[in-house]
Design goal:
mainly beta, Jelly Rolls, six-stranded antiparallel β-sheet, 12 strands, 12% helix, globular
Length: 138
């Protein structure tokens, strides 16, 4: 088994680990893996992209990401309310973006509308061997 096979298997495991819907007051978001690949010029790092679909009123539970993960988030459609660490709560509109630094806690991530869906693209740059990119905070 070569290193590329190992990296691909680890990437698939990461994608499945983050593709589990989360529950928030009975309303769930859907996380769909979109892309995963080792970064060839940065040994040990991978880029993973997921689409987060929020039905009207849906929210993700508070969560943290792998300690190595830098996340870039882009609102594809609708409006997403977010709060990272102790920063301000903010509503991001379609076309706007934000980031989460490694080790950050994503306290609020939800559809800001109770009547229209929202969609978010989240791109992770993380250690290739990280087993789980997202962990709910209890």
């Amino acid at each position: 088994m070569n290193i590329q096979t190992v990296v691909r298997a680890a990437g698939a495991a990461m994608a499945f680990a983050i593709a589990v819907p989360a529950s928030a007051h009975g309303t769930t978001e859907t996380v769909t893996p979109s892309f995963q690949h080792a970064i060839p010029n940065v040994p040990g790092k991978s880029l993973t992209a997921v689409i987060v679909d929020y039905p009207p009123g849906a929210a993700s539970p508070a969560h943290k990401h792998a300690g190595s993960a830098f996340i870039y988030a882009y609102v594809v459609s609708g409006n997403v309310e977010s709060q990272v660490d102790d920063g301000p709560k903010r509503v991001y509109h379609a076309g706007e973006s934000f980031f989460e630094a490694p080790g950050a806690i994503h306290r609020i991530s939800r559809n800001a509308s109770n009547t229209k869906p929202a969609k978010l693209l989240a791109v992770f740059i993380a250690d290739s061997n990280d087993q789980s990119l997202t962990t709910p905070i209890k």
